[in-house]
Design a protein that fits this description.
By secondary structure, this protein is of the alpha+beta class. It has 12 helices and 13 strands. A hairpin with a 5-residue loop joins β8 and β9.
Length: 406
């Protein structure tokens, strides 16, 4: 019987096509602008996040100044073990991390050294998955694009570096290193004049300049301290949403760090403000549409009172009468939502086309697929809810009333 009443309800919906189309257009006219607003909201926020993420420094956390004797290996390990942290590695003193490298043709350049190791996001996000290593007979380095251009070097080339130190005894020692260029970071990654080497290599350079034993260089000096301490460190946060909590943890450790948390908070505030505005507009529109559907369906049931009574006389149950207006409301809801999706697609294409003239990589209006499914479900719940009062009235029709009126 349910199949029969659904078919009958649909035929009746088609019979009053002009009124049915008006209801569909009413829903689409309310829903399409809301979807477009939601798409612009999503697109703009995603673009802001995307542009922020394009900045290589946005996920980097670096301490401001030093902390007493520096940062111990244990502290850096505790940073690395944090849920928000993707990668962390120690940094030596800035003076100790400067190195003059020279090519075979005599070109020289002073670069700043940074430590790197497996899992370094700076390397991985720029397509470098093979990291520099160090051993007494082999030293490797990844250089920035600026270094490669100024020295006219490429991957596989070798450069030389000369280290010198004067011991307390007055003896002067020199160590000449031959370093292979392992890889070159693209210009978008780092704009500095830098070289990235194995942490052990970087620490060995500092220890050599401090007059200490350096096993990597096979050079004797003063005894090494019991525990290594780093002047600073370089850490990477897993995602934008983790920056603020990571910064709060450092504050609890009395470590002041440099982050882009303010920029991220601004994006979050814009997102929340737009979400509230769209939510208010959506709620108001949905209430208006609910009232419109409820009054329309209720009027239809009253107008078709005798027809529904005749259906009861023909043997249709109360449940069938209950489903009759609900089926028609669902058809209106589905077609209205589909039409609004089509209108959204046209408007989104026009908006994106206009903005693509300025930036070909930009997509201003976008709605995730899951949101389309959610919209369809919510609208069906609204139209079903709007039709319930009329449906209950239809199910309570007494066939005897129709017989008496006839």
């Amino acid at each position: 019987m349910s199949c029969s009443i659904a078919k009958l309800a649909f035929k009746d919906w088609l019979y009053e096509f002009s009124m049915s189309v008006c209801a569909v257009l009413a829903l689409a006219s309310i829903l399409a602008p809301i979807i477009v607003l939601h798409g612009i909201h999503t697109g703009v926020i995603e673009q802001m996040r995307h542009r922020l993420l394009k900045d290589p420094a946005v996920l980097v956390v670096i301490p401001i100044g030093s902390k007493g004797k520096g940062f111990s290996e244990e502290f850096i390990e505790s940073v690395r073990s944090r849920e928000e942290c993707e990668f962390a590695i120690g940094r030596t003193r800035d003076v100790a991390a400067e190195l003059q490298i020279t090519t075979d043709v005599g070109k020289s350049l002073v670069i700043s050294l940074e430590a790197t190791s497996e899992g370094d996001p700076l390397m991985i996000r720029n397509g470098i998955n093979s990291f520099p290593t160090s051993s007494p007979n082999n030293f490797e380095m990844v250089v920035t694009n600026d270094v490669a251009k100024r020295l006219n070097i490429k991957v596989g080339d070798k450069v030389r570096a000369s280290l010198g130190r004067r011991l307390v005894t007055g003896k002067f020692e020199r160590k000449v290193l031959e370093i292979s260029i392992k890889n070159i970071l693209p210009a978008k990654a780092v704009s500095m004049t830098s070289g990235f080497i194995d942490l052990n290599f970087l620490v060995s350079i500092q220890n050599f300049r401090d007059g200490l034993n350096v096993d990597l260089f096979k050079i004797k000096g003063d005894e090494l301290p019991e525990h290594n301490h780093f002047e600073s460190f370089r850490a990477y946060v897993r995602d934008l949403d983790s920056v603020e909590s990571f910064e709060e943890w450092f504050k609890s450790q009395n470590v002041e760090v440099k982050t882009r948390s303010r920029d991220i908070a601004n994006i979050r505030n814009v997102d929340q403000s737009l979400s509230i505005i769209i939510l208010v507009i959506t709620a108001t529109s949905c209430i208006g549409f609910f009232a419109f559907m409820m009054s329309t369906i209720h009027a239809n049931v009253r107008r078709k009172w005798k027809m529904l009574g005749m259906l009861r006389l023909l043997g249709y149950s109360r449940l069938s009468m209950l489903c009759f207006p609900i089926f028609q409301a669902v058809v209106t809801g589905i077609l209205g939502v589909l039409l609004s999706f089509i209108l959204y697609g046209i408007v989104a294409y026009i908006i994106d086309s206009l903005f693509s003239m300025v930036d070909t990589d930009v997509k201003v209006c976008m709605v995730p697929t899951v949101d389309f499914i959610s919209i369809l479900i919510v609208i069906q719940l609204i139209v079903i809810g709007a039709s319930l009062k009329a449906a209950l009235k239809a199910s309570s029709i007494d066939p005897s009333i129709v017989m008496r009126e006839n």
